[in-house]
Every structure is written in structure tokens, then in C-alpha cells.
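Changelog entry: the DUF3046 domain-containing protein record was regenerated in this release. Current contents:
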Amino acid sequence: MREREFWELVDEVFGHGYGRSLVQDQHLDALAGLTAAQALSAGEQPRVVWNVLCDHMDVPDPQRWGSDHNAPPMPVR
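Regenerated C-alpha cells:
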């Protein structure tokens, strides 16, 4: 997943305004207390940040991937 795709999914799944607020303001324990925006800036993979954000917000897996429903592969660590 590219960062551009991350932002597209934020807009599609959460809505533009609410999604941007979540990414900037919601601290995520699974990312050491960083916000999604901070984690992306620190170099975390967008796919990982997206899954952590969705887990935190209780987004069911079928709804995480927007209209195309194709989950990209997890990055290799």
C-alpha cells in the first residue's frame, strides 16, 4: 500500500473531515502512542498504520478496503 492509497481509504471509510481528524488526533497504543500521521512521518508502513487505525476504530475487515475490497499484502518486517 502506498501512502496515497492510505489517504484515499481514510476519506472513503471515515469521510474526509472526520478521517483527517482521526489521523491527526487519535493516539494509537499499538503504534507507541503516536498518531497515524506521526507514525507515517516516522516511516511506518501505511498498511500497518491503516490496520492499527481500523482495529482501534473497530472497523470490520470487509469494510476496511473501500469499494474494491482488495487488501494489499502485509509488509515484510
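Residues 3-14 form the longest helix (12 residues).
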